[in-house]
Design brief:
Elements lengths: L1 H54 L5 E2 L17 E5 L2 E7 L4 H8 L6 E5 L2 E4 L2 E3 L9 E5 L1
Helix pairs in contact: 1-2
Protein name: PilM protein
Organism: Kosakonia radicincitans
Keywords: Signal
Length: 142
């Protein structure tokens, strides 16, 4: 009788450990897919912004309403597009793994960086951060 209770307890412990491992693997997969989706959406905004810029460099200000996004891509208000002093910026709040995914997707393009209190850190160095870009954002600079 005691041995059957012991074996039942051991089986429950093993099942719990296996379920925990499966949960961790699923969580990692979801995080990876989320990063890829966020990076892809950001890159679509960058592409639309570049299309706007090459067609006719717009005046300073908010450019979000001026870009043409693919029909299948919904507008994301957390991704902002701004023109200031002849430079263009696409920026969004950073999330874990987003910047690394962008670096992978763009082969470490120096147009992308992370904003901090001192500026925008890109692979080629630090750029000045305009006041309208908050700290902790992923930034594309044109």
């Amino acid at each position: 009788m005691r041995s059957s209770i012991f074996f039942a307890t051991v089986l429950l412990a093993v099942a719990s450990i296996l379920l925990s491992c499966v949960n961790d693997a699923s969580r990692n997969n979801v995080a990876s897919v989320t990063q890829a989706q966020q990076a892809g959406q950001f890159l679509n905004y960058v592409s639309a912004f570049n299309d706007l810029w090459t067609a006719n460099a717009p005046a300073d200000g908010d450019a979000a309403a001026k870009v043409t996004l693919p029909d299948w891509l919904p507008r994301n208000t957390s991704i902002q597009l701004r023109i200031s002093g002849g430079a263009g910026y696409v920026f969004a709040p950073s999330s874990p793994g987003l910047y690394a995914q962008l670096m992978d997707d763009t082969e470490n393009s120096s147009h992308y960086g992370l904003s901090d209190a001192a500026g925008i850190n890109t692979p080629s160095g630090r750029l000045a951060r305009p006041d309208f870009i908050p700290v902790g954002y992923v930034v594309y600079v044109r």
